[in-house]
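Sequence, please.
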């Protein structure tokens, strides 16, 4: 790696600076409960009351990590996110280990740390519960171990890869690609660790199979459940993002050139890495190959071998690419601009600024849950009244309330309560919870839920039948970093952080 002679900062100051940046980005863009998959992870981790019944619950290492945090600190959004925070630190540590920071202290290694600390994809994922984030941390540590010289360390990396696969099954794509790229780069060095990775993964899979055979009578229960997710998926559509046809296949390319998750880092790494290829060390080449082959497979490969089933357009699958970007981008810029180091530093600073801007301009991920919390607090302050809300808001209140349904908030009973209420996510034959029939004095409206998710017909009908006076419980909020644009752009949707919440008074 090319470097500028002499450290710019002392090591303690550099460590404090990077740690402060990581903490500041985490605090500024904290998510907490996001109201999506994290609620399934968190509920099952808290209860852990039966064998798993869906693909979230089958990711047992993540479930156990979240459960451990709950047992230590109680059921809260911070506890649920704690394993993800540790995984983010694991990514940061892995980058430091690979680039020998802070032992080797220069603008390139420190730049690598800052890229990892401020990457919007990780900034958004590190503060909410998710198996893929935990798996990414394990993959990052495994990658760093496999890139070291000691054979025992490389075997530890193989074990971490196997654990990552048990944590989230989609890790298999990066693991397979990394192993193939490693054999291509240096077969002698990596043949043993690759075999170890296969053996460790097989051992964990056999242990899982024995446990599930005993618990549910099906040794392959986890893999059948994972495969069923894509059973009815068309090859050119994603029901979660509503992307179809050409837009579905252009989505990976769009993220390559510019996307909020990576800013401009992905395309900069691709261009700079190709230009600097022959001067890169073998570790950098291996990371570069692994990252962009993973990007290609996640975008255009198939989830299952018996049919072409591309992966859903979920950007959080790409988290492991952060390690390669952080390591390769500063090193490649230093090589490409070795006679003009000012430009290398300027481009890296520009990339970091874009990363911050992307986080600042990010979407409304998790803000509907915060509004549900505000509505729940209002209901608590009025215990003598009974309120009605939609099922999605009720689910969020249930999670925010420590996995307890609020005492004076109910939903209209119907198919949505039976099918979508979290407490009814139980095996067939389990008792179905229904809300008691009680007179309602008000309707709690989560405007973010209605706009982004929609409400069930039962709630919509009840709301239409009771057009009473409305009171703002939680006001509309704008994104703080974009609020200065409000006088120029007006109240445009991209400036809105949250639509807020309202009370409709009945009677």
């Amino acid at each position: 790696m090319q470097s500028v002679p002499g450290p710019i900062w002392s090591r303690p100051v550099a460590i404090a600076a990077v740690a402060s940046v990581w903490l500041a980005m985490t605090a500024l863009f904290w998510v907490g409960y996001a109201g999506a998959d994290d609620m399934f992870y968190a509920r099952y981790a808290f209860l852990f009351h039966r064998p798993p019944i869906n693909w979230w619950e089958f990711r047992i290492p993540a479930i156990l990590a979240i459960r451990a945090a709950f047992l230590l600190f109680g059921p809260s959004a911070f506890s649920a996110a704690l394993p993800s925070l540790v995984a983010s630190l694991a990514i940061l540590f892995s980058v430091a280990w690979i680039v020998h920071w802070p032992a080797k202290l220069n603008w390139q290694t420190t730049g690598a740390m800052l890229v990892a600390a401020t990457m919007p994809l990780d900034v958004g994922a590190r503060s909410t519960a998710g198996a893929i984030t935990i798996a990414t941390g394990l993959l990052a540590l495994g990658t760093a171990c496999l890139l070291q010289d000691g054979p025992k360390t490389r075997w530890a990396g193989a074990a971490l890869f196997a654990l990552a696969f048990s944590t989230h099954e989609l890790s298999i794509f990066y693991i397979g690609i990394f192993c193939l790229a490693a054999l291509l780069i240096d077969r002698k060095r990596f043949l043993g660790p690759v075999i170890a990775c296969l053996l460790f993964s097989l051992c964990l899979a056999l242990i899982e199979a024995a446990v599930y055979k005993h618990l549910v009578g099906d040794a392959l229960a986890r893999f059948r459940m994972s495969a069923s997710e894509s059973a009815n998926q068309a090859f050119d559509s994603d029901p979660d993002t509503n992307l179809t046809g050409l837009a579905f296949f252009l989505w990976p390319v769009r993220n390559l050139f510019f996307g909020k998750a990576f800013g401009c880092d992905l395309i900069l790494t691709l261009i700079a890495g190709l230009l600097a290829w022959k001067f890169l060390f073998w570790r950098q080449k291996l990371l570069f190959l692994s990252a962009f082959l993973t990007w290609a497979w996640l975008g255009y490969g198939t989830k299952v071998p018996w049919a072409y089933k591309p992966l859903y357009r979920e950007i959080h699958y790409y988290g492991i690419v952060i390690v390669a970007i952080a390591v390769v981008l500063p090193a490649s810029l230093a090589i490409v601009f070795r006679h003009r180091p000012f430009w290398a530093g300027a481009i890296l600073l520009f990339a970091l600024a874009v990363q911050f801007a992307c986080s600042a301009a990010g979407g409304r991920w998790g803000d509907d849950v915060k509004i549900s919390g505000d509505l729940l607090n209002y209901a608590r302050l009025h215990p003598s009244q009974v309120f009605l809300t939609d099922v999605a808001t009720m689910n969020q209140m249930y999670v925010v309330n420590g996995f307890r349904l609020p005492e004076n908030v109910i939903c209209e009973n119907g198919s949505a309560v039976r099918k979508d209420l979290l407490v009814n996510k139980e095996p067939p034959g389990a008792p179905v919870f229904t809300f008691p029939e009680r007179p309602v004095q008000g309707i709690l409206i989560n405007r973010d839920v209605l706009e982004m998710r929609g409400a069930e017909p039962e709630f919509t009908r009840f709301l239409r039948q009771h057009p009473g006076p409305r009171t703002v419980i939680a006001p509309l909020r704008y994104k703080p970093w974009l609020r200065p644009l409000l006088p120029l752009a007006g109240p445009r949707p991209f400036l809105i952080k949250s639509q807020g919440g309202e009370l409709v008074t009945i009677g």
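The CA atoms of residues 424 and 433 lie 6 Å apart.
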